[in-house]
Amino acid sequence: MNRSIMALSAVAALVPAWPAGAQQARVEQLDEIVVQGEAARRPGSGATGIVANDGFVPKTSRTATKTETPVAETPQTVNTVTQKQLEERRPQSLTEALGYTPGVRTGGYGFDPRFDSFTIRGVDITYTGVFRDGLRNFNSPSGLFRMEPYGFESISILKGPASSLYGASASVGIIDAISKRPTETRFGEVEIQGGSFNRRQINFDLGGPANQAGTVLYRITGLLRESNTSLPGVPDDRLFIAPAITFKPNENTKLTILGEYMDSKTGGSTAYDNNYGSFRLRDGTVIFPTVGAKRTILFNPAYNDFTQKQGRIGYEFEHKFSDTVSVHQNLRVSTLSTDEKFGTTTYAGRVKEDLDAISTDTYLKMLLRTGPISHTVLTGLDIGRASYGSRIGYNFASISDPALPEPTKQRQTLIGAYVQDEMKMGPWRLLLSGRHDWLSSTYTVPGTAPSKQDEGAFTGRAGLSYVTDFGLTPYVSYGTSFNPNPGTVLNGGVAKPTKGETAEAGVKYAVPGYNAFINASVFWLKQKDGIVYTVVDAVNRQTQLDFQSRGFEIDATTSLGNGVSLQASYAYTDTEITKLSPDTVGNQINSVPKHAFSVWAGYDIATGPLRGLGLGAGVRYTGANFGDDYNRLIIRNSATAYVDARLTYDFEKLDPKLKGISAQVNAQNLLDKVDQVCTAGYCYFNQGRKVLASLRYRW
Questions:
Q1: What pLDDT was estimated at residue 212?
Q2: Which residues pair with 355 in a beta bridge?
Q3: DSSP state of 504
Q4: Beta strand spans in 396-538 (E)
Q5: How far is the C-alpha of 361 from the C-alpha of 136, rounded, in Å?
Q6: Between the CA of residue 311 and those of 174, 240, 375, 411, 432, what are the distances in Å?
Q7: CA–CA dist 481, 501 (Å, integer)
């Protein structure tokens, strides 16, 4: 097999890579705190009761506790990508949306529009750490649900263990994308976009009351896009539509139905030809890892399609029996089908995969008081089930569709029972939660006996914070995690569940008199049997390792009345492999920088001759890091920084008759800096400059 075929074999194997007292209690009525910022009140925006932000500044989020606990009082780090940030930066994927979040590593696989891929604090959560509206997104090796940022209200990033509340999730936490929901104010917007790579797109977002009484609300969000990319044969086409409807027959009952359908097409491969060279380990074993990428693309643009159709429908139901007792149930059914084609001028490969999943979470919420202590208690049951079938075939005789074998199948069932108590006494906040999960998994390869897993695990979380009158809140937290993994590992066996623990200490500061918020924290975590990818015999394969990570993060956000908004962050992440192979123990996890920072600033001019003009610019810096777990300098990634920018104009400031009309131009990687980036021993290139222009009408 020549080098190109060897490299393409790595690409094929990389498909699943890319892309856990004496006094009796008495019940009293307690007041719930619900903070609504500007973003939650503005027509066409806001998920009231789910999340509330004021410009760039987060106020409340259900992600950390499933209750409306203020972010400033939560004893864990919660980073938020608000609606204001999404509108200013205009990300085109979940990966891009997380580009300014501290501790999140994006772009490790260069430019690849097929999957959203990232790490948090050194932990890869691509497959198991992404949630949608509080319910996990089940994934399969080649089937990852795509996220459309235009359908987001906001994104909450919960740092630290979440397994005691959400079940299967990483020790580092979860990413929870919050969908747009119906609002009580009638609104609408239509937008046309164009830009780099012959991009053409139209967006729409409509909603409001559906009846005069306001007991039925609706919203429908969608877009249609045709676009090329910087790589030949790699389009970025998409059809997305997300209807939602809310029924509110009275103040005590609410049912929201959320739907979505997406049909997308991109390239089956985005790989470059890599230079391979022999490399001898300490024990004498010779392997053939990647040592660098050429600018020559490896794939054949004439046979390079990746189409994916996905859909989901579900509901969120809540009913208050009284001022102190309520029941909540969230449910989602989702399905996904992929068809991926890749090859060279002499070779063709194809992967077809189908995934079906159901997730449901039901919990009872009670507000209690025992003496001087008030309690918010949740008791719940979480059930999830996913099954997929994957078929992969190769044709070395011609560039045509290869025959596909019978599918390899996996079925996972997760059941979890949990309890959480948020206690409040004066300035003190104590959070305790515990959960037990039961996993049942069956993995079947055609012609072989099924491999089964039946495991259970207990996870817990404890956090303590002290809320001062002057805005300062120190906190500490500790928790454990349990996380089943899809697919197999290097030796062909079923991947073991990943287990971990994390400790964190920090301080939050809500600046008195200003709409500004600062979060600084130190953390330590370790994971056992974490999923990583490594090159073995020129093929990128999934394996498992033990490692630990420790570091420091600080994030500051503000949105002021004079039109100035700012987000700035820094992250220090120090990872160490404790078990993988003798040649890697003590090394750093590949593609995780020790140092990273970002800053984004915006200014909307409200007075003077330039009123209506908006400016924004940002810098994303990623420090030097190693391109493989052997930490070889030959494929070490150099430090790099990218510049983004935006320019907007509100035409109403020019003429009141033009109310609702605005224009915006965004540029990513404004300086057109193209660098090589290596991850898991294989190297890629990032995308160059991308410019997006839009004209929007809101009413």
A1: 94
A2: 336, 388
A3: E
A4: 408-425, 428-444, 451-466, 472-483, 498-510, 516-536
A5: 10
A6: 22, 10, 38, 19, 36
A7: 6
Residues of the chain with pLDDT under 50: 1-46
Distance from C-alpha of 213 to C-alpha of 207, rounded to nearest angstrom = 15
For residue 200, what are the CA distances in angstroms to 150, 223, 228, 265? 15, 11, 9, 14
- pLDDT at residue number 495: 73
Calculate Rg over the CA atoms of the chain.
25
Residues in contact with 474: Cβ distance below 8 Å, sequence separation at least 6, in sequence order: 465, 466, 505, 506, 507, 508
CA distances from 192 to 202, 226, 238, 507, 534 (A): 4, 12, 14, 43, 43
In whole angstroms, how far apart are CA 357 and each of 177, 382, 387?
A: 18, 14, 7
Q: Which amino acid is at 211?
A: N
Distance (Å, whole) CA 369 – CA 131: 32
Residue 279 has a pLDDT of 58
643-695 pLDDT tens trace: 999 999 999 999 999 999 999 999 999 999 999 999 988 899 999 999 999 99
Both tokens of 492, joined, read 């062909």
Q: Which amino acid is at 103?
A: G
Run of H or E residues at 10: helix 3-14
Of the chain, the end-to-end C-alpha distance in Å amounts to 61
From CA 374, how far away is CA 370, in angstroms rounded? 6
pLDDT at 451: 86
Convert the pLDDT of each residue in 55-66 to its tens digit. 999 998 889 999
With a CB cutoff of 8 Å and minimum separation 6, the contacts of 439 are 168, 412, 413, 414, 453, 454, 455, 456, 457, 484, 497
Which helix (H) or strand (E) is 3 found in, with range? helix 3-14
619/641 Cα distance (integer angstroms): 7
The rounded Cα 336 to chain-centroid distance in angstroms is 18
Q: Smallest Cα–Cα separation from 462: which of 426, 506, 503, 523?
A: 503
Tell me, what's the pLDDT at 281? 56
Q: Taking the model in full, what pTM does it have?
A: 0.89
Q: Which secondary structure element, helix H or strand E, spans residue 175, and what is its range?
A: strand 173-179
β pairing state of 564-579 and 306-320? unpaired
Strands 498-510 and 516-536 come out as: antiparallel
Supply 140's token pair: 């399969």
pLDDT at 237: 97
Q: Which residue type is seen at 129?
A: G
| DSSP state, residue 603 | E
Distances (CA, A) of 205 to 152, 153, 170, 183, 250: 11, 12, 34, 12, 26
Per-position DSSP letters for 141-167, written without gaps between them? TTB-----GGGEEEEEEEES--HHHHS
What CA–CA distance (Å, rounded) separates 39 from 153?
Answer: 9
Q: What is the pLDDT of residue 286?
A: 61
Distances in whole angstroms, Cα of residue 244 to Cα of each of 151, 318, 360: 11, 16, 18
Alpha carbons 125 and 137: distance in angstroms, whole number: 11
Question: What is the rounded distance in angstroms from the CA atom of residue 351 to the CA atom of residue 394?
Answer: 9
Q: Which amino acid is at 234?
A: V
Q: Which long-range contacts (CB under 8 A, 24 or more apart) does 99-102 make?
A: 99/598, 99/620, 100/567, 100/569, 100/598, 100/600, 100/618, 100/620, 101/157, 101/555, 101/569, 102/553, 102/554, 102/555, 102/569, 102/570, 102/571, 102/596, 102/598
Residue 123 identity (one-letter amino acid): V
